[in-house]
Amino acid sequence: MRVSNIAVFCGSKSGANPLYEQEAAVLGKLMAEKKLTIVYGGGNKGLMGAVANASMDEGGKVIGVIPKVLLEWEAQHEGITELRVVEDMHVRKKTMYELCDAAIVLAGGNGTLDELFEMLTWNNLNIHNKKIVLLNTAGFYQHLIAHIDTMAGEGFLYDNWRKRLIVCDTAQAAIDALV
Questions:
Q1: Distance in angstroms (rounded) separating the CA atoms of residues 90 and 95
Q2: Spatial separation of the C-alpha atoms in residues 32 and 140, rounded to whole Å
Q3: Can you point out the beta strands (E) in the chain?
Q4: Cβ–Cβ under 8 Å, residues 93 and 118
Q5: pLDDT digit string, tens, across residues 23-63
Q6: Edge-to-edge, what's the strand order for the sheet holding 131-135?
Q7: Whole domain around residue 24: which residue ranges?
Q8: CA 141 from centre of chain
Q9: What is the domain count for the chain?
Q10: What would the pLDDT profile of 79-98 be if each residue is shown by its tens digit?
Q11: The domain spanning residue 147 has which CATH number?
């Protein structure tokens, strides 16, 4: 299956390490160059803003999906190709999953982990078979990777999780894993 629309899950904050935002911008630029559409949370701040702006600056296509509650915070990105406003966070995730062919997960907080694990769970349950890439910029996800290895080692996972989640250290490697 050709991948053309990629969900990008990431933080609405930039994080403490400037490499997170730099790599998000590299990803946005690479996706525009490869004519890959970004499907993301619709925000204009943090890593969300960095990936969207970098893609738009290169003539890319960016679709944002944002729940009504975040409009009240004026967090929506007004300069993207398309902004879809949905009822709530659950509809946001479902819409993003329906629009994407694969996903890349960047650094982020609770929401990013929620999106990662829901997509992994759906993959495990054969609700979808979309590739999922974990972009481990500056080792951000090392502890999470170790924890998933622990879950596997302790017998809580049904199969080899590394078949379902591709771990990459750079935006270029993430793109290469999907196209």
A1: 9
A2: 25
A3: 5-9, 37-40, 62-67, 82-86, 102-105, 131-135, 165-168
A4: yes
A5: 999 999 999 999 999 999 999 999 999 999 999 999 999 99
A6: 82-86, 62-67, 37-40, 5-9, 102-105, 131-135, 165-168
A7: 5-178
A8: 14
A9: 1
A10: 999 999 999 999 999 999 99
A11: 3.40.50.450
